[in-house]
Every structure is written in structure tokens, then in C-alpha cells.
Design goal:
By secondary structure, this protein is α/β, with parallel strands linked by helices. It contains 23 helices and 9 strands. The chain has a 5-stranded parallel sheet, with helices on both faces. The protein has a 4-stranded mixed sheet with strand order 3-2-1-4. Strand 1 and strand 2 form a beta hairpin. The longest helix is centred in the N-terminal third of the chain and has 18 residues.
């Protein structure tokens, strides 16, 4: 059914491309998706309210004309924005995913996909680098598994796969890449994707409507189960029990499970121990924020995807100053594309600096952030700020100083030389500080939790 929708959208999008300049097509139609088609209605999604409004006001009739030419009937065109709208997934049938339920689609004479489904998220357009290469390799290995081979299923390799990292670094991209590849390889397999928050909402709705049996069957009778942002089930007793039973049922049948979270299982403090141990029983793969080289490669790819020419000096400036997430990098590229289309002017470095001034300002404020780090660490470990900045070598003071260095390298863009200057230390000392904290975190889970908690507090 996924292929059927795509085969309909492809000629529609090609007609739109023929009818409009590249800049207009890229701005308004390139990230549209056909998510549902019935005899009465064609439902499309687009990422923002602005795009939805513009398309409805200016292009809905054109899209209806093109659709009629391709499918032989004229459905009403509906445009949804995924910025704050959702396709209702809480129907009595408990349609949790969303992916290919061939029998139900034929029975209902409709094809329903999630409002935020991204068929364009593939392994080919995922940029791998030092911060995500293991997660990328593990995801590809899962997508290459032979789901029809009993020996492969018995081996249970890469099962479960738990991918973790901060928001905006590509975890969901990898989930969709796995889903898209497996769906293409196995069109008759049942692949279920659901978000952690949605899992809870669906469970509550099923309990209210007395449809928990259908809910469980939807989730447990699967070939592949993907749960995004699993941390949202933590602290909710009923939801954790349901996740526990679902996990066991799927795992015992040797079916593949892939989970994502903003942190590793051992750092989700309100997660039940029995869930924590199960999540850690397979492969843990972390994704960290991209370094400069990876940010530059991502920018080059995003500019190419959106057909925007950006000189190397502009790409380098953005890579140096927009450091928080891949999502921010794509946002900057899209904004530059919109400006070029709407204003028709060349993109200059001065214009880019104006657009990214908030990010650049954040970078300039990193030294102020380091002050906050020192204060937080001094409070946590009972060492004064003056002692941390001094040349004293007491054990407690040295530990606090090491932690300050480590956290600064994690959450600011300050270089080792800049930090060394603030602390009146040699740069080589900072290398030792980072290594000391990393080694201790690897050996001492409680210490690691404390450091991660400090980082989250400082980031918030």
C-alpha cells in the first residue's frame, strides 16, 4: 500500500514540477506527501501551517486537476500541516501505525498513513560521520536482516536495537530509513511504528473504549516493532506494564524491536528495572551532536536537496555557528531558500549572519555558560568557584575542575585552548581532564548519572 501511494504521488509531483519553476516547487511542494486516498478525498501533508495555507489558497484546484487526470476521478483535496495537526489514530480499530496493513486498506477502501510519515528519509540521504557512524551501521544491519530465515531470527542479532541521543540528531531519520527499506523488501510483513507518547495516549483510549484486546493484538502480532522516544513511557505504571508485556511477546517470537530515546536506558531514572534490563539486552548505539566536519557535510547535502547554491564561505560560516542540531541546520537552509525565492536576491554572507545571529550570539555567550557550569559544579560538589579557578590540587577541587572541563566540552563550542585560558591551565591538562571523566563515567554509573543530570539542568 505504501508503494501504491507513492506511485500516485510521483506523477502528481512530476506534473507540479513541470508547471512551476524549481524554486517554487522546492518551496511549496517538495516536502508534501500523499497520506490517504479514497474515492472522495485525497489527503496531503506539509510541514508548516504557512505552506498548508498557501497551497490551499493557491494550488488546491491544480492539485485536484492533476490527481483526477492520474487516478480517473476527482477527489476533494485536503491539506494538513504536521506542525500542529495530527491524523486521528484513536479510532476504535486502534490504527496505531500506520504502515502497510494490506487487508484493512482493501476492506476500508482507503489507505491511511501517519500525518508525519517521511518516505524520503532513507539511508542514502542520512549523512554519517564520527558522531553517528555506529548507530548508522547498526540500523543498516537491522534493515538488511533476512526476516524469512529461521536461523537469522533464532540468532536474534541486533535485537533489540536501542538508539539514543539528544533531540535533532537523526534518530527518527534512522527509524524511518529502517521502516522504508524493510517495507520495500517485505511488503507483506506487518511493521508497526509508534511514538512513546502516542503509546500512552492509545492505551488510555483503548482502556476507555474497552478495546485493549485489539490494541494489544495490533502491537504484538508484528514482524517489526519501532517505538520512538521510549523515555516518555517512564514513570507511568500502566504504560510501563503494557510496554513490558508487549516487549516480551514480540521478543519471544524473535521479531525485531527498535527503540529510540534521548538518553541510554540506565539514565532513565523513572524507568522500571525490568524494562531497563530488557532495553539493555541488545545493542546500544549512541548519536551525539555533529562535529564541524559532519555539520558541513550535512549542510552541503541539505543545500543540494533543496536545490540552493551556497558558496563555501557561507556553508563554513553556518557550520561554525549553528551547532545545536541537524534540525537547526536544515531550518537555516530552508529559510535561505525561502528568502531567495520570495525576494529574488542572491544570498550573501551578511544576510546569512543576520539570519543566524541568534545562533552566533549563543556561541558568543559560551563563556557565560562556562561560568554557569562552574557555579553548578561548585554547588553540587561543595567546592567554591574560587577554588576551581585556583591552582589548588586538593582531590575534591581537581575532580570538580575535571568535571567543569568535560561539561564545557559537551555543551559549549569553546575550544580546549579557550577553556584552558579561562582556567589558567595548559591545554594538555584539559585532554587529561576529559579522559578522566569519560573513564570514570564508564566505570561508575552513579557518577555518570550525576554528570548527565548536571548537563540536562544546564541545557534547560
Amino acid at each position: 500500500m505504501l508503494e501504491k501511494l507513492e506511485s500516485i504521488w510521483l506523477p502528481i509531483s512530476e506534473e507540479l514540477r513541470k508547471n512551476h519553476p524549481d524554486t517554487a516547487y522546492n518551496l511549496w511542494f517538495s516536502d508534501m506527501e500523499l497520506v490517504s486516498l479514497t474515492a472522495k478525498e485525497a489527503m496531503f501533508t506539509t510541514p508548516t501551517n504557512l505552506k498548508r495555507n498557501v497551497i490551499l489558497d493557491n494550488f488546491a484546484e491544480e492539485i485536484a486537476d492533476i490527481t483526477e487526470k492520474i487516478v480517473g476521478f476527482r477527489p476533494r483535496v485536503v491539506i494538513l500541516s504536521t506542525e500542529n495537526e495530527e491524523i486521528d489514530l484513536s479510532a476504535p480499530s486502534i490504527e496505531i501505525f500506520t504502515k502497510i496493513e494490506r487487508g484493512e486498506a482493501e476492506k476500508d477502501d482507503s489507505i491511511v498513513m501517519p500525518s508525519d510519515y517521511r518516505s524520503d528519509y532513507t539511508f542514502d540521504n542520512f549523512i554519517a560521520g564520527s558522531s553517528n557512524d555506529f548507530a548508522y551501521a547498526a540500523a543498516r544491519a537491522v534493515s538488511d536482516k533476512d526476516l524469512d530465515d529461521p536461523e537469522t531470527l533464532r540468532a536474534n542479532m541486533f535485537n533489540p536495537l536501542f538508539i539514543y541521543g539528544p533531540s535533532g540528531v537523526g534518530k527518527t531519520h534512522l527509524l524511518y530509513a529502517i521502516t522504508n527499506k524493510l517495507a520495500k523488501r517485505y511488503p507483506n510483513k506487518k511493521i508497526v511504528y509508534i511514538k512513546g507518547e502516542e503509546f500512552t495516549n492509545q492505551l488510555v483510549e483503548a482502556i476507555r473504549k474497552k478495546t485493549t484486546a485489539q490494541f494489544r493484538e495490533k502491537l504484538r502480532m508484528v514482524d517489526v516493532l519501532l517505538i520512538d522516544d521510549i523515555q516518555f513511557v517512564a514513570g507511568r505504571e500502566a504504560t510501563q506494564l503494557e510496554v513490558f508485556n508487549t516487549f516480551n511477546a514480540v521478543y519471544e517470537e524473535r521479531k525485531q524491536i527498535i527503540l529510540t530515546s534521548d538518553r541510554p536506558p540506565y539514565e532513565i531514572r523513572t524507568l522500571e528495572e525490568r524494562l531497563r534490563t530488557r532495553f539493555m539486552s541488545g545493542i546500544l548505539a549512541d548519536i551525539s551532536l555533529p562535529d564541524y566536519d559532519l555539520r558541513l557535510a550535512i549542510l552541503q547535502q541539505k543545500a543540494k536537496d533543496h536545490k540552493i547554491y551556497l558558496p563555501s564561505e557561507i556553508l563554513k560560516y553556518i557550520a561554525e555557528n549553528v551547532t545545536a542540531s541537524i534540525r537547526q541546520l536544515e531550518g537555516v537552509v530552508k529559510k535561505l531558500g525561502a528568502i531567495k525565492f520570495l525576494q529574488g536576491s542572491d544570498i550573501t554572507l551578511e544576510r546569512v549572519k543576520e539570519i543566524t545571529k541568534d545562533f552566533a550570539q549563543a556561541k558568543e555567550n559560551d563563556s557565560r555558560k562556562f561560568e554557569e557550569i562552574i557555579v553548578s559544579v561548585s554547588t553540587k560538589y561543595g567546592v567554591s568557584k574560587e577554588d576551581i579557578l585556583s591552582s589548588k590540587r586538593n582531590k575534591e577541587i581537581v575532580l570538580a575542575r575535571h568535571i567543569c572541563v568535560y561539561i564545557a566540552r559537551e555543551i559549549t563550542s569553546l575550544s580546549q585552548s579557550q577553556i584552558a585560558k579561562i582556567l589558567n591551565r595548559d591545554r594538555s591538562t584539559l585532554v587529561s581532564s576529559e579522559k578522566f571523566v569519560k573513564d570514570r563515567m564508564a566505570e561508575d554509573n552513579e557518577f555518570a548519572l550525576d554528570i548527565k543530570e548536571l548537563i540536562r539542568e544546564l541545557n534547560s
